[in-house]
Design goal:
CATH architecture of the largest domain: 3-Layer(aba) Sandwich
Number of helices: 6
Number of strands: 20
Strand content: 35-45%
CATH class of the largest domain: Alpha Beta
Order of helices and strands: EHEEHEHEEHEEEEEEEHEEEEEEEH
Number of domains: 2
Helix content: 10-25%
Largest sheet: 8 strands, mixed
CATH superfamily of the largest domain: Probable inorganic polyphosphate/atp-NAD kinase, domain 1
C-alpha cells in the first residue's frame, strides 16, 4: 500500500479535523494522502487534490467520511473503476450500519490500524441493466424498480434463472444484497440478513396481494423483471440513485456483480450490537 484517499460529505462538521488525523496516520506509515477536489478546502497543507475518477484509480485505501450514503457512493465509484479498493467508513453523525466507526472513536481506531493488516469484509454487489441495451450499473445496497409518485400500480413478471416466479401487481420491487437488507428492503417488510451471507432478497413494494412476501435467492441466480404495465415515470434506481428509465416490454436484469466491495471492519461494535442499537431492540438483553 502506497496511497490513501479521502471521499467525504463536506456538509458534515468535523471533516477537517478527521482529515488531519488521517494525514498524521499516513505520515506515520510513510503513505501518500490524496483527496477529492470537492474536499480541497478541508485538506491539510501539501495534500494533493484530484478529480474523483483519478483519486479512485490512484488510491490503495479510501476513507469515506459522512454517513452510509457516502460509503455507498465510494463503493459505486470503485466498482465503475473496476477495482476492489478497501473502504473505511467513518460516520460523522449518528451510528450507521455501513459506517460503523463513530466520529468520537476514530482517533483510537487509527492508533490500532495497521495498513499491512486490514480486517476486510467482502460484500457482494449487484449489477443491473436493461436487457439488450448494454449499460450496466453496480449497487452495494439495492436495486429498486419503482413507479412515479402519481403513477398507477406496476405489473411485472419476475423470473429466476429463466423460470417464472410470479407476476406482481405492486408499486415496485426491491432487489437487495444482504448488506442492503437493513435499508429500503427492511422498510418494505423484508428480512434482516447477516451481511456475510451472500444472497439476493426480492421484496415487493406495497403488493396488491397480501400473500406476496420477500424471497431470498442464491447469489448465482440471474433475476429478470419484465415490465408488463408501467408509464414513462417508472425508474430503476441503484443505491437510491436513478440508473435507468424502463418502459413496457423491457426487461430489467439483476445479477451478482463481478467485483465485491471490500469494507474494513475495525469498529468497536459488532454487527449485532449495531442492530440492537439502530433497531432499538429490547427484550431484556443481558450484556456480558
Amino acid at each position: 500500500m502506497k496511497t490513501v484517499g479521502i471521499i467525504a460529505n463536506t456538509s458534515k462538521s468535523g471533516i477537517g479535523t478527521a482529515a488531519a488525523h488521517v494525514f498524521e496516520w499516513t505520515s506515520l506509515h510513510d503513505l501518500t494522502l490524496i483527496v477529492d477536489r470537492s474536499f480541497g478546502e478541508f485538506a491539510p497543507s501539501g495534500v494533493t487534490c484530484l478529480a474523483e475518477t483519478d483519486l479512485v484509480d490512484a488510491a490503495d485505501l479510501i476513507f469515506a467520511f459522512g454517513g452510509d450514503g457516502t460509503l455507498l457512493t465510494a463503493a459505486r465509484r470503485i466498482a465503475v473503476a473496476g477495482r476492489e479498493t478497501p473502504i473505511i467508513g467513518v460516520n460523522m453523525g449518528s451510528l450507521g450500519f455501513l459506517t460503523q466507526i463513530a466520529e468520537d472513536e476514530f482517533v483510537d481506531v487509527l492508533k490500532r490500524l495497521s495498513p499491512d493488516r486490514l480486517p476486510i469484509s467482502s460484500r457482494m454487489m449487484l449489477s443491473v441493466e436493461i436487457a439488450g441495451k448494454g449499460e450496466k450499473v453496480s449497487a452495494l445496497n439495492d436495486v429498486v424498480i419503482a413507479k412515479g409518485a402519481d403513477s398507477r400500480m406496476l405489473f411485472f413478471e419476475a423470473r429466476v434463472d429463466g423460470e417464472i416466479v410470479t407476476r406482481y401487481a405492486a408499486d415496485g420491487l426491491i432487489l437487495s444484497t444482504s448488506t442492503g437488507s437493513t435499508a429500503h428492503s427492511l422498510s418494505a417488510g423484508g428480512p434482516v440478513v447477516a451481511p456475510n451471507l451472500k444472497a439476493m432478497i426480492a421484496t415487493p413494494i406495497c403488493p396488491h396481494s397480501l400473500s406476496m412476501r420477500s424471497l431470498v435467492i442464491p447469489p448465482s441466480a440471474v433475476i429478470e423483471v419484465e415490465m408488463l404495465s408501467c408509464d414513462e415515470k417508472t425508474i430503476v434506481a441503484a443505491d437510491g440513485h436513478k440508473a435507468f428509465r424502463v418502459s413496457v416490454g423491457e426487461t430489467v436484469v439483476i445479477r451478482r456483480a463481478v467485483l465485491d466491495a471490500h469494507l474494513v471492519e475495525i469498529a468497536e461494535r459488532s454487527y449485532y450490537e449495531i442492530l440492537r442499537i439502530k433497531m432499538r431492540w429490547a427484550g431484556g438483553v443481558r450484556e456480558r
